Amino acid sequence: xxxxxxxxxxxxxxxxxxxxxxxxxxxxxxxxxxxxxxxxxxxxxxxxxxxxxxxxxxxxxxxxxxxxxxxxxxxxxxxxxxxxxxxxxxxxxxxxxxxxxxxxxxxxxxxxxxxxxxxxxxxxxxxxxxxxxxxxxxxxxxxxxxxxxxxxxxxxxxxxxxxxxxxxxxxxxxxxx
Length: 177
Hints:
This protein is of the alpha+beta class and 177 residues long. The chain has helices spanning 16-48, 158-176; strands at residues 73-83, 86-95, 99-103, 113-118, 126-135, 148-153.
């Protein structure tokens, strides 16, 4: 309100202490909600994890890399690929009933189909049909731990699929002993 005689403004000001206290309380409440949201999210993710064998990656579909139907087993097995470019010696870094990660310096083009002969420890080598589903060929060298490609096993006989299952299960049993 303005005093017309003196021209002075008379208004009730907010005490600076009250203002600081109000902002502090509001900030504390906001920070508390953020912490509660973080804890809720963290524990929800921890509680929904698959308590499966630690050698297998959880098959939850949580990101582009987790669209797999079968859990993966970490391995280091030699293999021989028969491709349109000729034979290639490669290394498998993980494997499942659906596919594998193949370490090789020159990954094949996407969708190329080939035969792969896998040499698992204590097992006879066996051959499967496969197809390239992704590769890291275009990723800069300093961003790649293992140059290679993801493959999917395709058009295999029941006998070959059962052989793969047997080899994976045998490897798991050896690891558990």
